[in-house]
Amino acid sequence: MRIDQYINDDQDPIAVEKLLLKLQDMLASAGEEITYIAVQKKPAVTLFPNSIALTNKRVFICKSTKWGLATDFDIVPWQDIEDLSFKEGILGSQVTFTKYNGETLTMAYIPKDQARKLYRAGTEALQARSARDGASDTDATAQLDAADPNDELSVKLKKLKTLFERELITEAEYENKKNELLSQL
Which of 42, 105, 118, 129 could be cross-linked to 38 through a Cys-Cys bond (beta carbons 3.0 to 4.6 Å apart)? Predict the structure, then answer.
């Protein structure tokens, strides 16, 4: 993997190279690609910086542990993320990912340029997810509208969507069951 494309904004090349080697094995084989990497830069010398890697499918929050010999990963699929925000401070920016369940993942001391580009890449990923979700929901809604509102299948689909919106089932469970029910039409 070439690191040149990931160190355009003053990222630490050594930290990026180590991260890319670790991520290489964790990326899904079905077309998952890294879109941006931001590396923490604290005011003092940062020997083992934390970092954030965005892919077209997931967000990796990478925290160095054990004096840089190990890394803890918080890996969140884009469909679980409700919002992305950042705050610029004097010594860098703080980036926050908010999940639908209210949990937040935050990293401070991200250089301002990197935080802005991270925000732009993240916003594009969230918009792409919304477009995909909107298209599949529109198809399902059109099929529901065409069906008799008192039809048993329509009632099941509405209940299924309610379960998903309340986060009682995962997106994968929702899609599988929805497709199973729609195949009965």
Answer: 118
